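Model it.
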Amino acid sequence: MTKQRPTPDQLLASIKEEESLEQRGKLKIYLGAAPGVGKTYTMLKDAKAMLTQGSDVVIGIIEAHGRKDIEVLSQELESIPRLMIDYKGRQLNEFNIDATLLRDPAVVLLDEMAHTNVQGSRHNKRWQDIKELLDRGIDVYTTLNVQHIESLNDVVSRIISARIQETIPDSILDMADTIELIDLPPEDLLKRLQEGKVYFAEQAEIAREHFFQKGNLIALRELALRVTAERVGAQVLWHRQGKGIERIRPSKDKILVCIGSKPESTKVIRAARRMAASLQAQWIVVFVEAPEIESYDRNMAIRNLRLAEQLGAESRTLHATNIVKEIMTFAHEHNITRIMIGKSSRSGWKSIFLRGLTNEFIRQSGEIDVYVVRGDPDNNKPPPVVRPKTRRSLSTYGAALAIIALVTFVVVILRPFIMESSIIMFYLLGVIMVAWFGQMGPSILASVLSVVLYDTFFITTPFNFDLVTPLVMLLVAQLISHLTVVNKQQAKSALYSEKRINLLNNLSRKLSATRGIDNLLAKAVQYISEEFNSEVMTLLPEGNHLKIRAIFKGDDFLSEKELSIAQWVYDLGQSAGLGTDTLTSSQAMYIPLLASKGVVGVMRVRPIQPDSSPPDPEQMHLLEACSHQTALAVEVDRMQEQNKKLELQNEADRMRTIFLQSVSQDLHVPVITIMTDANQLTNMTGDNDINKIKQISDNIYSESEHLNRLITNLLQIAYLEAHPVTLKIKHYTLSKAITTVVKIFEKRLGVMPVYINIPANFPKIPFDRVFMQEVFKNLIDNAIKFTSDNKPIEISALIEDDKAVISVADQGKGLSPYEMDKLFDKFYRGQEYVTDRGMGLGLTICRSIIKAHGGEIWAELRKGGGAVFRFTLPLHSQDKFKA
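Modeled.
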């Protein structure tokens, strides 16, 4: 067999799976076909064996149901004290998850995985307690009967002719590291039931008549065996993929599941889950939101989508008027190979007159296979759900009757003055008015009633001889009412979709135009608060705890209980509080701020009205979408901030490297020269050559002067950057200050001329003499470096707009245009005309000093070649100036 390398996606999935497994606790499920097969007993025996081997095993909760062997084994293990909850005047005990987390054992035993917790517990279901323990790194051993698996709920219901209310999602079953089947033949199980080893005598008799029938037990046993086999097959397949072993049956199937708000949708979802598991195929659940859908139906459909997500599906919501066309387009765009739909049970006359979606899917499916799942039989239907009746629905029928009555009254009054054909127009107007309410039922009533009244009171020809007019009128009235209602519903749906899109778009726009985490959160909480009429708060981690960072409306304080809920949401990345299945007693919703790299914080949303009902699924979905956008904005801002810090750090490292290179080179050369010349002087004991001694002394002085210049520049730039520059301003003659500096450079200038072109009547200007001499020193030194062939240096000044403009020009090689803006940067020494001496600090010092004087400095290309450095000084007298 040829081995196949794993694809990058498979390798990435394998790495992620291994990382999650390392952090997550291990889950072992003792699976049985029915109560009494020995799941709890086997779990306790294994736990006792682990205890003898030194494992830290504790009992979270064990349900003995009066069985002595279970009670004896339980006493040999440490038990976590149970949580006492007052429920309707009774003290009930439940699993204490907080005490377990505080104890932090290695393994916890939790019986009856599908158990529903008492109201007031942290989670509604025990499997949620188990998931939290696993997420916190604690191993869990638990028991489960096959009838409690969600995807098998409808199959089990048909077997035992009753619906199982307590179920676990298949995603939790998929998390199991080990599933051990505890099997017992039906005959032995019935014998145990008769001996009272499963239930008490009265309960056993009831169970024998209903659940514990041999046929039921055989079917349930087959299901348990199948689930165990499928789980082992999935583990083998994952191992083969992870090791790069060629798959025996590579599957590229993709299943599309079409659901709605009807009860049969849950059955379709469970059937699709079983098919996807057996084929190892991806499955997508879609709901098409038609224009005429009501909010109640939309919420029911969203609940079905949540059920599909719990079972591992990808969910999508589409918007269209033609449901079949939209789904088939989606199927072709996503390479769907199979479509699953539900077929509702209709009476005979309905199946004749109403063409269902099932036939349309089959007719338009083409190369895609269509699987039809039959609806629940009548004797196994779920409890009927009472659809909320609104006063508006009833009042619309009354309004329809009133409008048609009003039209009839008007026609009776105007009958002598109008033609018979005009009467039809009045009734059609009335039908349009009724149809504008947007409900099909009242529209049909109005159209039928209009035809009956018109035919009865206003047709002069006997009815038997004129069927055309009323039939055409009925057809036109029905068509007009239908088109009006559909148009109204489409407008309503479009308005709803637009509102939802605008909600997220406006939030995104507000966040994209804001910078800074605190500003982002402030914008987000204000916007969400106004849109959902709620108090909104965000909490971000600070150290080991969460801290309130933004709030809009409400108190800026949280109790210890609320902080603990927020911390739980942050740690596990799951919503809690109002409208969820966790900590439902809370009056606020706690939503994790989930970004691409994990949870960045928690958003708390509390309705302003204290007695408000929990948010419906659509509102929860919108709130989660808003929280995700907020989290992503925070994450992006943090990344930008980190990038800025990284850039600054890189720049600092670059400047440090340049500085060290400059210092090592520019200080090393003069020191070596001084040391060499000094050593030569020391060895000249018999040599009295005055010229040679003078030359060596000049070298020592020159290099010492250069070394002093470098050290002075370093000290000056450090001082200028660390402290505000304080100037001692007095009025000085500019030419005298320049002449003093030129004399300092006499030796270096040699025969190079310096022309000082300053008018004789040039006024005294205010500046700090010491600092300004440093400016001229650096500019003249820079001109000497870049001027060759003893060409002159020109220094000039003029008055321009209450400012003195001073220029220092040379006739050297000039400047490159692209480096004009870089000349005054620290440690910049030029690209094309860089010299071997100097650290690139002189012009930076000049800029700092000129800026402190309130002036500007810049460089220009000199006409005829060379460069000109110009700076300005204000002419206004100041005794003291700080910058």
